[in-house]
Amino acid sequence: MATLTRAAARALLRKTRSPALGLDVSPSRVGLAVSGPGGGALPLGTIKRAARDVRAVSAKIAAAATRHRAALLAVGWPLEPSGVAGERCAAVRAFVDAVR
Questions:
Q1: What share of the chain is helix, strand, coil (3-state, %, to 5)?
Q2: Residue 41: beta bridge partners?
């Protein structure tokens, strides 16, 4: 799994003509959305996060990505109001690393 720049992600989506699966990670759940053809996002729902059950959450994310034929996963990056990556970003990075 690679990290892409926004430009590289757009190029990949154009080349594959596939959507992106968006993830909005919080301590208690993961929100899912799929990109639409016009550039917007269509909400798919949420996955509840159990404290130590990363495998179950990973499987549900993988199933959604497969079902929607997503070319990539786009994960929300919750910056602080000052623009700095704080504790919430660290928690999202830890979640992504665990799911990876």
A1: 40, 25, 35
A2: 35
Pick the more confident residue, 34 or 40: 34
Average confidence (pLDDT) over 75-84? 92
Q: Which residues contact 99 (CB under 8 A, 6 or more apart)?
A: 54, 57, 58, 61
Q: What is the pLDDT of residue 2?
A: 74
According to DSSP, the β-strands at 29-35 and 20-25 are: antiparallel
Helix (H, G, I), strand (E, B) or coil at 75: strand
This prediction's pTM: 0.86
Which residues have a Cβ under 8 Å from the Cβ of 2 and sit 6 or more positions away? Answer: none
Residue 43, beta-bridge partner list: 33
What is the rounded distance in angstroms from the CA atom of residue 52 to the CA atom of residue 1? 22
Backbone angles phi, psi at 12, to 5 degrees: -65, -45
CA 42 to chain centre: 13
